[in-house]
Amino acid sequence: xxxxxxIRFRGGPKEYYFDPRGVSVRPGQYVVVETASGQEYxxxxxxxxxxxxxxxxxxxxxxxxxxxxxxxxxxQANRTREKNAFLICQRKIVYHKLDMxxxxxxxxxxxxxxxxxxxxxxxxxxxALVRDLASEFHARIELRQIGVRDEAKLLGGIGICGRPFCCxxxxxxxxxxxxxxxxxxxxxxxxxxxxxxxxRLMCCLKYEQAAYEDAARRCPxxxxxxxxxxxPGNIVSVDILxxxxxxxxxxxxxxxxxxxxxxxxxxxNGKGSRExxxxxxxxxxxxxxxxxxxxxxxxxxxxxxxxTADEDEGGKRRNRRGGRGRRKxxxxxxxxxxDRPAKADKPARQERPVRQERPAKQxxxxxQEKPVKMERPVKADKPAKQxxxGEEKGAPRRRFYRGPxxxxxxxxxxxx
Length: 416
Hints:
The chain has 416 residues and is an alpha+beta fold. Helix content is 19%, strand content 23%.
């Protein structure tokens, strides 16, 4: 048995074992450890514990110290240097006209080494680029070419399922995925539906592959010749998850039926001819759903309908359905009345005082007649207007301008 602590770098999913050298480290603490590329600032995810010797790859790297406040400031300064180095390297790539895509930049804890991760479709001659970067940063420069799956792991993101990438969340290593897995699971072979953001087949196809393979061994293949409770027929489709098949019967080819695996007698598994196959006379039994048993000591589930059985006067048994408002039989009513406590006598009702009669209303005085209005005298007709001297008869009269018209409630009308 060997004492170890579990460390993760840069929030990656893979856990590495280190020798604590007798120092007690709690999960969540940041530490400084010795690695093959120098000192690194990392987070502890597993505290001190002992594991079997066969689970360790010797030699174990040592723990240097638990991180201090100065170590944290150094780590933050390195993150700022990484952003500046990324921009400078991008300008250098454009200057040298290299066919490469810069993905990420990492600087080790002591700042003596800088790693540039990039992707490219082919080989790239970046010797001139390395010389320019070395003269710019005065440190050891390393350019590392990675694949598209490693790019997705470094950058992270959200998949089509709405969760973070599996490779960036918990997968230690990339698992091989093939198109055969999509065929076994009856998935659409459309590349846009079974591919991840990286452009490769989704890693999650591997998760349920063992369950699909186990269910496929219990199910007959498509186009198999089987005998069902309704007669012989050929399998049209297979539902692996429900372990059911759709069969086109020889007697009713236009209406396929669905059966369970236990209802089938496989006469030929897979494609082929029916020559030499003897169809047995005895057909397999149908599957019947088992009745749900009520555990001892528990009442049967209430379905919302209460059933009671009473006997009529003639001796016939009748069922009554009803809820809280059903009628009770005569003996039940009598017993219910006997069980009720006797009601206390109410106090005698007092007589109300007699109302006094209201005085009679006095008659209104008779309205006096209004005086008759005198008719107005008829106005005499006005004499016809005579023309002014000097004007011709029938000539239009001259009109004088009297100024702008005034509104009823304000000053003169202003034109907009």
